[in-house]
Design a protein that fits this description.
With 61 residues, the chain is mostly helical. It has helices at 6-27, 31-58.
């Protein structure tokens, strides 16, 4: 079994939390919450992909 890459697990958990925030905000009829959750999701996933690319290029992945 390979080692767990904790940083990517953290990004995955944060992304899932943002997705849940979108659903909760829709249920609460909060447009502000939906927008903030979408922005958070884009930011977390974007930073995660950027980190993965850097690690792949440096040979750490």
């Amino acid at each position: 079994m390979k080692n767990i890459q904790w940083i990517f697990l953290g990004f995955a958990i944060l992304s899932a939390v943002c997705m849940m925030g979108i659903g909760i905000s829709i249920a609460e009829d909060s447009l502000t919450g939906v927008i903030l959750s979408i922005i958070g999701l884009i930011a977390v996933m974007g930073y995660g992909f950027k980190t993965k690319k850097k690690r792949r290029e440096s040979g750490k992945l």
